Amino acid sequence: MLLASVVVRTRDILQLRFTELFASLPSRTLASISPPSPFRRLAKVAGYAALRLVGNVFQPIRNREELHGKVWLYAVSQNNYEALHFIRAAREDSVLVAGQSKEIGRYNAVVNRLSLRRKLLYYWQFPAVLLGLWHTEGRRAWRFFDLIFNAVGYYEVYVRALRHYRPRAIVFANDHNDDARALLLAARACGVPTAYVQHASVSTNFPPLGFDLNLLEGQDALDKYRQCGPVRGQVALVGMPKADAFLARRNQRPTAQRVGIAINTLDETEAVTAALAYVVPMFPDLTFTFRPHPGDRRDFDFLRQQHPQLLFSDARQQNVFEFLSQQDSLIAADTSTHLEAVLLNVASIYFRFGTHGVADDYYGYVAHGLAERARTLPELGEALRRYQQHKPADLYRRAAYYNATLGTAEEGHSQQRALRRLSQWLDAQSPQQPA
After folding, report:
1. Gap between the Cα atoms of 74 and 63, Å rounded
2. I want to staple 24 with a disulfide (CB 3.0 to 4.6 A). Which of 91, 177, 189, 357 is the partner?
3. Following DSSP, what letter does each residue of 253-292 receive, concatenated?
4. What is this structure's pTM?
């Protein structure tokens, strides 16, 4: 009975990994998450066990802040940290936390860490969990056995941490990573209130919204989450807190002279190379800036040699809004950077770099008129030529469906709106005593 509940819980934690969408990722992208060869997956498991699990045992945890009784802001990435930091700046009772070895980019040294040393004690469950998921998920359980291995033990370790520290509440900025979902399930079991701050555009492939308080950016997010399943808890549409400081500096240029090209790990290197080879020589008077996703580990130095005039933006060092504030137009495929660009009145062009099988117009930006589609390189050139001649001053109004404060008296004050709603919710909570 105990192992059966562990299997169900692990499936919930890894919910997104067993979807058709995940299975349809380009082979290169999927291989970076879970190698196609079972021997390489086994090697990955061995490396994870040796470097992370055993390594964690000997790695001291010396947190800079007290975690007992605080409001935890749980980050699983650099983007998460940036989405939650405004709460830390406003509330003295809040602390930013992450898993012991979690990669948080340039903020690695400033987040508090939750020990994962005891995770080793729960790996005896792995064979039974793998067998149980084989019965429910079929061959995908074997295909992703390394991800199943990684997920084992998170829940138990986090339950122990919650019982020890007894946080007042936990605020998340991610609802689908395995460690975040494990902490969410642990919080429910321990009676710790949970809140969610949307940090990027969402899709209908996400797990159902499962927090006690959900601070969403706009109607688009709520409509999509309703398609994911029943919405749990209270919902408030608060706009985009991370954009507040930049909305007053909207792009007012009447023409596009600076063009950003933002890519993610789904985009194919060959297609990116071909697009740059097409547009850069065609528009010698435009300044192009290339920006890979912060999680993209490909080496693009060859582009510097091919296009000496091409500028580069390091997403691990430069905030996305800082990058966009230096652009007049954006070229990108499936990334929430389109929304962030339009909010700053940067003309956004949706162009797919390759023919991978992930859903076309994944976030619905083209369907809702936020971004213009260019299906071919000639169409891309035509769009750039048009914006080079004239860029409308009211492009940002297209983002109203995605940002609830746009065009209202609270535009640019989403942080205050979110903080006010969070404070009301926290004040209404009765003292929680984790089980």
Report:
1. 14
2. 357
3. -SS--EEEEEE-TTS-HHHHHHHHHHHHHH-TTSEEEEEE
4. 0.90
